[in-house]
Amino acid sequence: MGDLFADAAQERMSGAAPLAQRARPTTLEEFVGQCHVLGKRSALRLAIEEDRVGSMVFYGPPGSGKTTLARIIAARTGAAFEELSAVSATVAEVRAVLGRARERLGAHGQRTILFLDEIHRFNKAQQDALLPAVEAGLVTLIGATTENPYFEVNSALMSRMQLYTLEPLSDEEVAVVVRQGAALLELRISDELAASIARSAGGDARSALNILELAARTAESEGAELTEEHVVDAARKRPLVYDRAGDLHYDFTSAFIKSMRGSDPDAAVYYLVAMLEAGEDPRFVARRMVILASEDVGDADPQALVVAVAAKSNAVLRALADATRDVREHGNLRPPKELRDAHYRGAKKLGHGEGYVYPHADPAGFEVDHLPDELKGRTYYRPEPGAGERDDENG
């Protein structure tokens, strides 16, 4: 009887689950995005298709497909599949999984794959409990994390795992996901509305499906067709992915500094606004400007320090306003990899800093467009004669 109730509950839960859960792809053919690691003849795709995956870490922002890939592996593998969340799992639970893995291997020769979501939340003791099992091949470990694993995962464990970096989905890829979700809702949606939802989601497939579901429910309750107004109401504000003490903090700071060093005011304004809109402490940003004026400019222009401390003009205010509109519309787009922080172990494996042209050593560095790829060519700062004077509108 208990099993009957459990089956009924599971069936009802699947029907009541959020759209993002119901729309989760179950095969590689349904999976959208990440072609750089899942191309037709890529090593990862072949490993999944041939059921020979090794220990690995999926590192990427929310909604990029980390957990979905793990579930696809679970559906294809002949190995036993165990899943734990590092948010709640204890050392005892990890040891219980390892015990079951040992029994399967000894009794039936069956492998065990352990999927550990939010692996960065495991402390050192918990990670140490896993290390011997991974090293000996008792389990194949698949971790998923939104945090840089070189900061959060023990180096001994990382050395035994393959790292796959997942990127935010493009607007076109998110629009595909939106249309798939609309089909599940038996909803007709125009390409324009799908594109609007995609732009609001910031490369996050889960966020896009949540926006679609809320907008559709609102329209249904009104007895109306789904419109742009419903989408805008459901989206409210584009999500900004940022952390004030982790990877993104350092990547945006690095891009901000390198943009100023390369005399690129438009990129510098963009990264400044991207940090502030995401909640960065303005005093931190101000300190970085003062440090650059002192160290990168220094005696070459003693007035640079004065400007860094005191400068303000209408041209600057207009530049900040224009950049703010782009951040709110497009999200805080990641800097190009050559501008990201490269001052830690493993950064080069992620491609960070590769191709950066240091302006003090090569004047070509002053000709580089430091903006994110999606915004290259934008102009925010337009100095004009008399632009330093304050007009009535700006007080």
List keywords for this structure.
alpha/beta; 7% strand; 5 strands; single chain; 3 domains; 5-stranded parallel beta sheet; disordered C terminus; Rossmann fold
Annotate the secondary structure layout:
Layout: H1 2-16, H2 19-22, H3 35-38, H4 43-49, E1 56-59, H5 66-76, E2 80-85, H6 91-108, E3 112-117, H7 124-136, E4 140-145, H8 149-152, H9 155-158, E5 162-165, H10 171-184, H11 191-201, H12 205-222, H13 228-235, H14 247-261, H15 265-277, H16 282-297, H17 303-310, H18 314-330
Parallel strand pairs: 1-4, 1-5, 2-3, 3-4
Structure overview:
This protein has 395 residues and is an alpha/beta fold. The protein has 3 domains: 20-165, Rossmann fold; 171-235, Helicase, Ruva Protein, domain 3 (Orthogonal Bundle), CATH 1.10.8; 247-375, Zinc Finger, Delta Prime, domain 3 (Up-down Bundle), CATH 1.20.272. It has helices spanning 2-16, 19-22, 35-38, 43-49, 66-76, 91-108, 124-136, 149-152, 155-158, 171-184, 191-201, 205-222, 228-235, 247-261, 265-277, 282-297, 303-310, 314-330, and strands at 56-59, 80-85, 112-117, 140-145, 162-165. It has a 5-stranded parallel beta sheet with strand order 2-3-4-1-5, with helices on both faces. Helix 6 links the parallel strand 2 and strand 3 (112-117). Helix 10 (171-184) packs across helix 11 (191-201) and helix 16 (282-297) runs antiparallel to helix 17 (303-310). The N and C termini lie far apart (74 Å).
